């Protein structure tokens, strides 16, 4: 659709990692079972510093469960994972300090103003009052939200909430930011603007781990993994994946994969 | 600490910006205490009764005057025959009719016995019962006065004295009861709703991903309600003291301590409820059905525990409110110190610890 309008993906491929190749997320045989059912079935992969890593899969494929284990709110049944250099099982506290998280619900408090939300979330990440002040000023300038800084978040349109909660997730300058279907329910233009924000952040060196089921968005990622029924069935750059499956779009890659499994 | 203050501040924003929770927090306690205190009462005042006097003599007139002068009754009219009784009841104003037998005075002197029949409109059984009791009390009072003045017939008389609540004011029962209900409601329901709201909106997830520890999140959520509940307890006590003249004979300090203990037990119940419900509505229903009903029915607030069937009496023991009501009444009315209520206090402490332990355990499970 509009992926041509976005900065071509190749431009970023060169930005990525190739010299450093420093692992920032490392996952080995990570498994989560609910009873007999393995929602996540022994997945292994690495994510490199500074890359935009797309974590794809249909609804129910297990991507949210896998992500929850990586951000320390779900305990793995088996396997290991290191995030930002810390083990998620034994050192979840340090993991949490080094990551940002934005859920699919753009979870800011509707009954707090923009400013109060920033102050609150800055506060729970241990930012000092002075730091919060500087951050707020920078955000106001960057997002041009001078006029709405004292409005309740509930009164803002969805696109604004999304941008704000992304910015709030970045307040404490995390090494990695996890985005769980960040563009659900917003219009294509806002989605595009949002991906521009993601690129800007990636340029600054932040690693982006993003789940989505919009296949056009997969094209914007440096590398994507595709989960089907709890397993990672493919993992490569969008370009290589399309070549490997001999198709034109990521959507077709996904369809081929899903059909093969069935 | 700074994080904690920020968290509390945010929690107060939630409370003060939500008209519904403000109303439940501050409107309801006051409305309930006034309602229970003034409207819902077992006492009768100025009830309209009628008299059917077949003898119309000196004695009956004296008894009628006695009834007239009491604050409980006003004599609406004099009837002439039994037939009129039902039509009076059907009109609805007159609630009871007193029938004096013919030759009342003569019978009293000659047979040493005369009868007054009370016919009451029992469509409202409680009121009817109370009226019957009150009329016989008035008559007996007259009789005993008469006996003591004339001194002739030696009759045995039972004199009862009501300790701690000589006028049997029902408000003395309702103030501790309402306080218990309100504290339970505010503490348990409001906390469980406010925690499940975060779950519902997805903000709980964000909080759990943050460096805040789960117990910090819970304490942050619960603390404002401890504070507000204490204010509520004080407001209710002030209303009881100044508006309804309910005495506080015991130590105010002890009373507040026991109240805080009860508040904490209710809060931990609220946390427990929030761990097993996913939506605010579930939390609300669970609080109402699981907590409010037992508190109202089984705590002894409205229905005396002694007159319940034995299984219900046994069940009532696991209701923290039961113990709290016993404690509050003992402190306020009997003015006792901790040496008389340490057992109840221990039970309450035990329950509180149990609920806290259980909710912590449940909360961890929820984090998987």
Descriptive notes:
The complex is a heterodimer of chains A (262) and B (368). In chain A, 37% of the residues lie in helices and 25% in strands. Chain A is an alpha/beta fold and 262 residues long. Chain A has a six-stranded mixed sheet, with helices on both faces. In chain A, helix 4 packs across helix 5. Chain B has 368 residues and is an alpha/beta fold. Chain B has two domains: 237 residues, no CATH class; 104 residues, 3-Layer(aba) Sandwich (abc type-2 transporter like fold). Helix content of chain B is 69%, strand content 7%. Chain B has a four-stranded mixed sheet, sandwiched between helices. In chain B, helix 7 runs antiparallel to helix 11 and helix 13 packs antiparallel against helix 14. The model of chain B has no long low-confidence stretch (mean pLDDT 84). Classes of the chains: A alpha/beta (262), B alpha/beta (368). The interface between A and B is medium-sized, with 28 and 23 residues. Chain A: This is ABC-2 type transport system ATP-binding protein. Chain A: Keywords: ATP-binding, Nucleotide-binding. Chain A: One of its GO terms (molecular function) is ATP binding.
Helix-strand layout with pairing:
The complex is a heterodimer of chains A (262) and B (368).
Chain A: H1 9-13, E1 23-34, E2 37-48, E3 52-57, H2 63-70, E4 78-83, E5 86-87, H3 92-98, E6 99-102, H4 114-124, H5 129-143, H6 158-169, E7 176-180, H7 188-203, E8 207-212, H8 215-218, E9 223-228, E10 231-236, H9 238-245, H10 250-261
Parallel strand pairs in A: 3-8, 3-9, 6-7, 7-8
Antiparallel strand pairs in A: 1-2, 1-4, 4-5, 9-10
Helix pairs in contact in A: 4-5, 9-10
Chain B: H1 2-17, H2 19-39, E1 47-53, H3 58-69, E2 73-79, H4 83-91, E3 96-100, H5 104-110, E4 116-120, H6 125-150, H7 171-201, H8 203-209, H9 214-242, H10 252-276, H11 280-298, H12 310-316, H13 320-334, H14 338-366
Parallel strand pairs in B: 1-2, 1-3
Antiparallel strand pairs in B: 3-4
């Amino acid at each position: 659709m509009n992926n041509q309008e976005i900065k071509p993906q190749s431009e970023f491929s060169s930005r990525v990692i190739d010299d450093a190749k420093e692992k920032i997320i490392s996952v080995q045989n990570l498994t989560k079972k609910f009873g007999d059912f393995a929602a996540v079935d022994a997945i292994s992969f690495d994510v490199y510093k500074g890359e935009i890593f797309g974590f794809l899969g249909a609804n129910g494929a297990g991507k949210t469960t896998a992500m929850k284990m990586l951000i320390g709110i779900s305990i793995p049944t088996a396997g290991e994972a290191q995030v930002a250099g810390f083990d998620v099982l034994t050192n979840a506290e340090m993991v949490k300090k080094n990551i940002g998280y934005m859920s699919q619900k753009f979870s800011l408090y509707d009954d707090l103003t923009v400013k109060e939300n920033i102050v609150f979330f800055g506060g729970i990440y241990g930012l000092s009052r002075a730091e919060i002040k500087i951050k707020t000023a920078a955000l106001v300038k960057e997002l041009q939200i001078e006029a709405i800084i004292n409005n309740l978040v509930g009164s803002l349109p969805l696109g604004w909430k999304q941008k704000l909660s992304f910015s709030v997730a970045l307040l404490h300058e995390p090494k990695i930011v996890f985005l769980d279907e960040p563009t659900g329910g917003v219009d294509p233009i806002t989605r595009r603007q949002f991906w521009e924000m993601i690129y800007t952040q990636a340029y600054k060196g932040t690693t982006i781990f993003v789940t989505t089921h919009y296949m056009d968005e997969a094209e914007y990622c440096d590398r994507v993994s595709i989960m089907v029924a709890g397993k990672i069935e493919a993992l490569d750059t969008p370009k290589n994946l399309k070549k490997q499956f001999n198709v034109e779009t990521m959507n077709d890659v996904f369809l081929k994969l899903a059909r093969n499994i069935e | 600490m700074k994080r904690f203050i920020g968290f509390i501040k945010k929690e107060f924003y939630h409370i003060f910006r939500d008209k519904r929770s403000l109303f439940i927090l501050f409107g309801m306690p006051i409305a309930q205490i006034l309602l229970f205190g003034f409207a819902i009462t077992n006492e009768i005042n100025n009830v309209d009764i009628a008299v059917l006097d077949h003898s119309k003599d000196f004695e009956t007139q004296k008894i009628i005057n006695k009834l007239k002068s009491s604050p409980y009754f006003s004599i609406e009219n004099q009837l002439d025959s039994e037939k009129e009784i039902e039509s009076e009841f059907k009109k609805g104003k007159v609630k009871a009719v007193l029938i004096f037998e013919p030759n009342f005075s003569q019978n009293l002197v000659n047979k040493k016995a005369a009868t007054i029949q009370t016919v009451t409109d029992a469509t409202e059984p409680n009121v009817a019962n109370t009226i019957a009791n009150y009329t016989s009390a008035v008559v007996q009072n007259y009789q005993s006065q008469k006996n003591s003045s004339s001194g002739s017939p030696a009759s045995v008389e039972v004199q009862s004295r009501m300790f701690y609540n000589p006028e049997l004011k029902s408000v003395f029962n309702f103030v501790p009861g309402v306080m218990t209900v309100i504290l339970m409601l505010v503490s348990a329901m409001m906390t469980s709703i406010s925690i499940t709201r975060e779950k519902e909106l997805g903000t709980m997830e964000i909080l759990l991903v943050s460096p805040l520890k789960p117990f910090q999140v819970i304490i942050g959520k619960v603390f404002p309600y401890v504070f507000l509940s204490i204010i509520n307890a004080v407001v209710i006590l002030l209303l009881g003291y100044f508006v309804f003249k309910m005495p506080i004979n015991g130590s105010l300090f002890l009373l507040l301590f026991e109240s805080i203990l009860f508040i904490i037990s209710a809060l931990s119940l609220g946390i427990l409820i929030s761990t097993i419900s996913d939506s605010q509505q579930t939390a609300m229903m669970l609080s109402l059905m699981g907590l409010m009903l037992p508190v109202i029915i089984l705590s002894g607030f409205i229905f005396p525990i002694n007159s319940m069937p034995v299984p219900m009496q046994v069940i009532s023991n696991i209701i923290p409110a039961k113990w709290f009501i016993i404690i509050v009444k003992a402190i306020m009315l009997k003015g006792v110190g901790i040496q008389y209520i340490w057992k109840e206090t221990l039970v309450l402490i035990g329950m509180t610890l149990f609920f806290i332990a259980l909710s912590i355990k449940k909360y961890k499970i929820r984090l998987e």
